[in-house]
Please model this.
Amino acid sequence: MNFFTTINLLVLPFFLLIFYSLKNQYRKLYLLFASALFIYFISPLVLVWSVFFLLITFYLAQYSEKKGVTIFGISLLIFNVFFANYLLAKDDALLFDFHQILFNTDQLILTVGVSFYSIQYIAYLIDVRKKRLKAESNFISFSLYGLYFPKFVMGPITRYQEFSSQLDFTKQSISFWPGFHLLLLGVFKKIVLADGLAGSVHSVFDYPDMNSGLTVFTGAVLFTFQLYFDFSGYTDVALGISKMLGINLPQNFNTPFSSASITEFWRRWHISLMKFFSDYIYFSLTYRFRKLKKHAVAIGVFFTLLISGFWHGLGITFLLWSLCHILYLLFEVYFFKNLTEVNGIKKVIRFMYVLFLVSFSNLFFRIPDTEILKIKCSQVFSLSKFWPKQLDTDFYAPLAQGWHQQEQFNFISVLIIGVLYLLFENKLIKTAEKNDFQFNFSFALIIILLLFGAFNSGQQFIYMQF
Model:
C-alpha cells in the first residue's frame, strides 16, 4: 500500500479545508476519525489490530503502580514486534527453525506500523511507571496519539508528552507554508530520487547475476542514498502535513551524510528511534557499568545496536548489519578523537569514510536472501571479480538498467539531481522552513516532479516492512 495513493494528495486540500473550518474543540475528534479512516483503507485488519494494542496500553497504564502489569504490557508489545518481524522474514533467512509453526505470510499488510507504534507504547508505559508523566485519562487524546495518520506507518516515533501538549490546536501553532514546502520536498525526494534509483538497485541486487564487485558495491552506495531519500521523504511528508495541522513531530534526519564519523551519523539518522534506544537502553547500561568508564560506553553501544538489528528483522542478514555498525562504533570509541571538528580535505575524507562503511553494511540490509548474499559478497571480496572487464557493459549498463539512450539519460539525471540536493541540502531545508510562500523553491520542485515523476505512481516505501 503506497502512502501517496492512500492519502491521495489531491484530497489533502479538502481535508485541510474541513479541518480549518472546525472549531478547536472538534479538531481532535475530526483528526481521530480521519486517522481511523486512513488506517481502514490500508486494511480493516490493520485498524482492528492497532486498536487492540492501543486499548491494552491505555488500560494497563492505569495500573502502573503494579510492576507486573507494566512488565506484562511491555512483553506483549515486544511480542507484537517479534510476531511482525517473523511474518516478514523468509524461512531461509531466520536464525531459528520455525517450520513447525505455520502462519499465513501472504497477509503481510497486518504488520504495517507495528514496530513504530509498539515502541511508542513501550516508552509510554515505562514513563508512566517511572512517574515521568501521568497516565492519560482522556481516551480520545490517547487514541489520536496511537492512530495519528501522518506518523502511523513509519514514524517518526513520538513521546506522548510531546504529542499531547499540542492538541489544543490554537491557530498560532499552524505553520502552513513550512508544512507545504516540506510536503513538496518529501514528495520530490521519494518520487524523483528514491524511486529514480530503485531500478538501478533492483537490477544489481535482486538477481544472482555475475556482476563485478565494483558494480555491486556501487549498487550498495546507490541503495544507501535510495534508503535515505525514501525514508526522509516520507518523514518530510509526515512533518509537513502535521505542521499544516498545527502539530510538530520530532525531527528524524539531520543531514546524516555531512557526518564526520559513524558515531555522528547515528546522531543524525533515524533520530527518533535512536533517541528511544539511547534513553531506555544505552544510558541505562552505561550508568549501570559506569565504573568501567570507556568500556561502559562499549557495552551500551553493543547491546543498543544489537537490539536495533533485531528490531529491523530476525534474519541473519540483519544481525550482520548490526554487527557491522557495532564494530564501527567500538573502533571509534577506542581509537577516534575529535570526531566532528574537521574541515577542508579532512571533511571529504571523513565523508568517504562514512559513506563507504554505511554502504558496506547496507549490503546485508538490502539482501535478505542468504544465497544471493553469498554471491554478491564473493564478487565484492574477490580481486579477480571486483574490477569490471568492460566499463560500459559490465559496470555502467547494469546500473543504468540497459544501454539505451533514454535509460542512460534517466540514470545520469537522477544522479546529478541527487548530488545537487545533497550539496545544497542545508540551504533547501532552511528555505522550506520559511513562513512565507517560496515561489522559486516550489516552482522548481513541481517542474522536476512533472518531468521525472508524472508517470510514476510511486513505489512502496522501504521502511513500511519494518
The two ends are 14 Å apart (CA to CA). The CA atoms of residues 194 and 226 lie 4 Å apart.
